[in-house]
């Protein structure tokens, strides 16, 4: 999640655990601790791919943060006037640090909760990386605690409960969409294929679905406000990788769980993480190989490409789609590729 949300969560958690000891200093300390795991962004791992896949790595590990929290609490207690019980400081610091990656794991980006074990990043993908409806209760509770200090802990409790209920509701919405997608793909060529579902920006009403095939992948949108259960699918050509698999590509495949698109863009081989972004905006696309004048491919140092523009038509179309307008062309297509693989698209419709 974004830094504001993580700071608000850290402050709220610290206020709840502090109880009658809750104060502006405690809330500030909680906010700072809540953003501490994200300081890994200052580490340069050597190239854009490595920086992307290693973010939310060791600094978000459930094997690292608890002992780190105990050490920070012990140092804090040692340097303080020892008016706090050591156990309470330890619970506060560890809780603030651990809730950070647990919340991050609810997004599509994923979090390496079990680093250094060779486990894929955990990505529940039930909430967008920025969601005001999750953040606002936390912020309101913390700000109210700063004003009405006699009830500070209770106000933090209220904010934390409200935000947690919203987070739980996002998981419920995700499960409902999963059931709908399973029903709609039953008996079609999409049935049984790897699938990724995630909310569109700033809400848990409109959801984006990606289905991965060997030579084709499909995208669809489903809103909780749709009047009919049918999902319109757009089929996109999936090109292959022309070289032996590089270290960067292996890392991206692990990070994205193979939800990647391979494209030859005029002699440049671009690999895009399909889980993140939509329409023309793809924030994680990397140039990994180039073609010589003789037609031979060679790997190049990874370079992250511009994510692409957000077209003016996209935002109002997104809002209409959220409200139940089941036309998705304006959202999923770009000017060069507006009706890709019409034959495949017709095949899915005729099978359903």
UniProtKB/TrEMBL annotation:
The chain crosses the membrane at residues 58-77, 84-103, 123-148, 155-174. Keywords: Hydrolase, Membrane, Transmembrane, Transmembrane helix. Pfam families: YdjM. GO terms for molecular function: hydrolase activity. This is Metal-dependent hydrolase.
């Amino acid at each position: 999640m974004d830094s504001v949300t993580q700071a608000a969560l850290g402050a709220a958690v610290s206020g709840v655990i502090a109880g009658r000891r809750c104060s502006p200093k405690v809330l500030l300390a909680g906010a700072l601790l809540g953003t501490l795991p994200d300081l890994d962004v200052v580490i340069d791992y050597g190239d854009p791919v490595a920086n992307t896949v290693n973010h939310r790595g060791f600094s978000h590990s459930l094997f690292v943060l608890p002992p780190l929290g105990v050490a920070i609490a012990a140092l804090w207690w040692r340097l303080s006037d020892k008016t706090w019980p050591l156990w309470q400081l330890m619970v506060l610091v560890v809780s603030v640090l651990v809730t950070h990656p647990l919340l991050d794991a609810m997004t599509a980006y994923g979090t390496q909760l079990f680093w250094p074990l060779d486990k894929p990043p955990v990505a529940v993908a039930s909430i967008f990386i920025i969601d005001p409806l999750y953040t606002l209760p936390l912020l309101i509770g913390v700000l109210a605690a700063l004003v009405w200090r006699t009830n500070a802990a209770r106000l933090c409790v209220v904010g934390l409960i409200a935000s947690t209920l919203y987070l739980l509701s996002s998981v419920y919405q995700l499960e409902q969409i999963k059931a709908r997608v399973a029903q709609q793909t039953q008996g079609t060529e999409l049935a049984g294929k790897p699938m990724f579902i995630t909310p569109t920006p700033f809400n848990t009403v409109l959801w984006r679905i990606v289905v991965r095939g060997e030579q084709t992948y499909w995208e669809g949108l489903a809103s909780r406000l749709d009047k009919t259960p049918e999902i319109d699918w757009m089929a996109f050509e999936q090109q292959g990788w022309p070289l032996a698999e590089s270290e960067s590509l292996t890392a991206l495949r692990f990070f994205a769980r193979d939800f990647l698109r391979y494209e030859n863009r005029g002699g440049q081989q671009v690999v895009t993480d399909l889980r993140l972004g939509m329409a023309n905006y793809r924030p994680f696309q990397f140039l990994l190989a180039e073609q010589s004048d003789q037609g031979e491919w060679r790997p190049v140092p990874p370079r992250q490409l511009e994510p692409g523009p957000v077209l003016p038509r996209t935002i109002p179309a997104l809002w209409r789609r959220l409200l139940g307008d089941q036309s998705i062309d304006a959202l999923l297509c770009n000017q060069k590729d507006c009706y890709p693989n019409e034959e495949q698209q017709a095949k899915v419709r005729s099978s359903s």
